[in-house]
Amino acid sequence: MARPQQNKWSLHGMTALVTGGTRGIGHAVVEELAGLGASVYTCTFTEAELQECLEKWKVNNAGTNVWKATTEHTAEDFAFIVSTNLESAYHLSQLAHPLLKASGAGNIVSLSSVAGVTSVNRITLWDHQRSHKSAG
């Protein structure tokens, strides 16, 4: 007979900030951290999306893509994807650094996509910027 799994560790008293926490990997991270007892803060593109998740969570990795053939991407597409998926993580880390350093227990965890290590049809700009984020 299987025993109920017990938490081997706890995040009670810890605080987490998860970008893109209403969808995909970010959503799963929010739920896991909250389930381990952390106070979790998150953000997303729309207030409606956030409100929908808050109703489910009862508690307090952003990325995007432009789906086109490689030859159809514009300079604006590239700038939008790199700004959202790469630069935002860098700038958030800069802003968080003094707070994390002062806490004495802070960490920054950056998640990436499998598209950073393998080609995925019709998302070449995503593949390219993810591979650079994963390598850093």
Describe this structure in words.
Keywords: NADP, Oxidoreductase. GO terms for molecular function: oxidoreductase activity. Belongs to the short-chain dehydrogenases/reductases (SDR) family. SDR65C subfamily. The chain has 136 residues and is mainly alpha-helical. It has helices spanning 24-35, 47-57, 75-103, 124-135, and strands spanning 15-19, 39-43. A two-stranded parallel sheet has the order 1-2. α3 (75-103) runs parallel beside α4. The chain starts with 14 loop residues before the first strand and ends with a helix.
Properties at a glance:
single chain, about 140 residues, mainly alpha, 2 domains, two-stranded parallel sheet, 4 helices, about 45% helix, disordered C terminus
List the helices and strands and how they pair.
Elements: E1 15-19, H1 24-35, E2 39-43, H2 47-57, H3 75-103, H4 124-135
Helix pairs in contact: 3-4
Outline of the structure:
This protein has 2 domains: 14-62; 63-136, no CATH class. 47% of the residues lie in helices and 7% in strands.
